[in-house]
Amino acid sequence: MNIYQFDVERVNGETLSLSQYKGKVLLIVNTASKCKFTSQFEDLQKLYEEFRDQNFEILGFLCNQFAGQEPGSSIEAAEFCQSTYGVSFPMFGKVNVNGEDAHPLFKYLKEQQPFRGFNENIIQEKLLKLMVLEKTPEWYIGDELKWNFTKFLVDQKGNVVRRYEPTDDIFNIKEDVQRLIRYQNDSAIVS
């Protein structure tokens, strides 16, 4: 099994099969426009611009499960992301990422890349832990996403290879994306 078995909904309600992205490196992100991490859209857009011509896509999934930080419609949220942060990567309709009603894609992502735990030696992670305990304690235990802007890196074959928490440095994500793209390019040369 891989992510290509899943269908998702665009912000306009159209269904799309993730098989459309076969052969590409993907970064799947749950997002919200009123989150303390919303400014990450800037870094994500820069990453997308740098690698989009090298079989790389970012897929943004709107989510309102964390303190109601995506209150409007999916279309309104996507327009906000585009007008405020210049987001040009694909955005998808609101999904639940945790609990019984979690979208099957996110259930699968969490199974493939469980939560690694909080590193309390890093102040941002310690603060995230405290915020989760205060605002959404039901997501504190287990592999549930802890907050918006959790990211999953998917290789060209649809395998989930890494999970990043909202506090993880975009530079580390960029290095991992570069490695996967380089591996893809090296494999093409050998074939």
TrEMBL record:
Keywords, A to Z, come to: Oxidoreductase, Peroxidase
Annotated GO biological process: cellular response to oxidative stress
MF annotations from Gene Ontology: peroxidase activity
Q: Where is the active site?
A: C35
Q: Name one Pfam family in it.
A: GSHPx
**Segments traversing the membrane:** none
Stated family: Belongs to the glutathione peroxidase family.
What's the name of the protein? Glutathione peroxidase
Query: Which organism does this record belong to?
Result: Fervidibacillus halotolerans
